[in-house]
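Holo prediction. Input below; ligand is 6-O-phosphono-beta-D-glucopyranose.
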Amino acid sequence: MTTNNPKAVIVIFGATGDLANRKLYPSIYRLYRNGKLSDNFAVIGVARRPWTNEIFRDKVKESIESFDDDHIDADEFASHFHYNPFDIQDLDHYEKLENLINELDVKHDTDGNRLFYFSMAPNFFGTLAANLKSEGLTTTKGWTRLVIEKPFGHDYQSAKELNDQIREAFNEDQIYRIDHYLGKEMVQNIEVIRFANALFEPLWNNQYISNIQITSSEVLGVEERGRYYDGAGALKDMMQNHMLQMLALIAMDPPIKLTPEEIRSEKVKALRALRVLNEDEVGQYFVRGQYDKGLVNGEELPAYRDGNGVDPESNTDTFVAAKLMIDNFRWAGVPFYLRTGKRMKQKSTEIVVEFKDLPMNLYYGKEHETKSNLLVIHVQPHEGITLHVNAKKGDYNASSTPITLSYDNNSDDKMNTPEAYEILLHDCMRGDSTNFTHWDEVALSWKFTDVIAKAWSQKKADFPNYASGSNGPKEADQLLHNDGFEWWDVTPD
Ligand code: BG6
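Structure of the complex:
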């Protein structure tokens, strides 16, 4: 690993895009402001548009306008940014880019370190990687790393082809595949909560846990992304990556060390233990949904099929709920319920670990309100942990009532939680790949979801089947009722 204040020339392909504007420039700014980036850095924005450095710097400054830091000179910060108009197919453009990188390397003294960030249409990922190599841009006296945005393929086969192409140009340890959920503070907290507390790990198994629920719901619909989303759907857009990554962190065994290799190896083992379904079993374990019109925050919004430039007969899932079984010694018999969807009632990501009842709980009966013990990890928008336990009710009887013990990660002393992208960029520049997805994880996740996608593609769904602003289709509730459980509503008010 390199130092905490890395030096590098960062080359962002897709520099005029939405992600760069909304996430990357503000994250680089925050790193700079927080002293996590040395002054020895330069950013080259690469895209087709014929912008100049001035236009680019103005855009960068706009993207950081909301930060109100008197001590930072925005012009000085923006002076590190350079724009390079570029056509991926035109090999002459690579030489020009190489010259610019070298010039900035000398000017900013970046030790020859290069970070390529692919944040453009994924169909160009393979060609771009190949051309960077053939035109000599991947060879430098410092380190070269590649950060690559999702989607990484649209099924196992396409992901493998893409991976093979990229691996021609970069080694696995140079590739940083982004799953921005791994940069979220509370997702990173899962390992600490689990492995730094005597309280949880002894109970973290099928003897004490009855089921685990992971929900990531969104209020927004597909907005401007209909063209991409209609070919993907919630299964590929959220379940294959973010949801399965959270599941792997919750389900994995403790690693022997906190190194990227050891952690990954445990995550891979957990994913390998996922029960593979036959196509004809998919209906028992998976529920798909698509939003209809409905009332969201008092406003009547149109159905998915009516508002996004998508096929009016679209069969795309905007919601998915699943019951996953992990067939290993620790988890045999414990259902993991996962659900994610767009246009739901609230924006929230929560992980709920529900513990089994005591074999003989004396506080049951009509005078008691005893409930299951829950450990809730609030990922977003609220960040924190809540433990649900039972305690004596404050009255004249010895009756029980549920109470909660809460930790709020956003409380005053923790106001400045870093953004996911900020953490991930910093990790990559330091050479720490822990919070990026290794090819083995990507491959296993696609193989698992491919079966579901295939089963669904063979049968048209009865869509739309949930109202905008609701909690998804009723079949998602039934999935849990069949096992005697229900989704816990644990989002803080
Ligand atoms: C992205 C998906 O990966 O994650 C989007 O492509 C989704 O469809 C987004 O909206 C959700 O991320 P977050 O951080 O807002 O929960």
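The CA atoms of residues 168 and 291 lie 41 Å apart. That is the main takeaway for now.
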